[in-house]
What we know:
By secondary structure, the chain is α/β, with parallel strands linked by helices. The chain has a single domain (2-209), classed as Rossmann fold (3-Layer(aba) Sandwich), CATH 3.40.50.150. The protein has 7 helices and 9 strands. The strands form 2 sheets. Strands 5-4-3-6-7-8-9 form a 7-stranded mixed sheet. It has a two-stranded antiparallel sheet with strand order 1-2. The radius of gyration is 18 Å and the shape is globular.
Amino acid sequence: xxxxxxxxxxxxxxxxxxxxxxxxxxxxxxxxxxxxxxxxxxxxxxxxxxxxxxxxxxxxxxxxxxxxxxxxxxxxxxxxxxxxxxxxxxxxxxxxxxxxxxxxxxxxxxxxxxxxxxxxxxxxxxxxxxxxxxxxxxxxxxxxxxxxxxxxxxxxxxxxxxxxxxxxxxxxxxxxxxxxxxxxxxxxxxxxxxxxxxxxxxxxxxxxxxxxxxxxxxxxx
Length: 221
């Protein structure tokens, strides 16, 4: 009788727990980042036929030919960014809104931009449903940042540039950090951490990655 009354395991909860364990195994050890990623349900950002794979550690297709990043890479990038509770953060490449949601739990204000209006509209809806009120999403050419809101304590770029974009570097506060994938093709890219110093910039190579390219201009969608 006891076995019959025992509730069935929640398969979604089980998959989320496995994903959280994968994050730790992948090198995400910052307790604040892990807690934020545990609170944000990746399943809310994945629709259609790929929804059943939302809790796997892999990138997945979303609208406009873009992807939602691999959770372990999201965690490692957020950890490298090291956002503080009072920080103002710029994200270039909103995509699904998943990364912005995680950042919103770690800092004061998130500004996120994407060149695809359809992605911004979808992300706004999900972020609103989640009650995340400290995120402002814009349709804009992210390669030029948001000069009207600069300077930023942190900048996170979720598309690969040939070099760290000059306009974004200029919008970083002294002591601020930017994390950006850099590479001339979609097969050879390196995640770079840039720290702005009083007299210049310090560059640190973190790990190989693979992201969609950073494209200038607005999308047609």
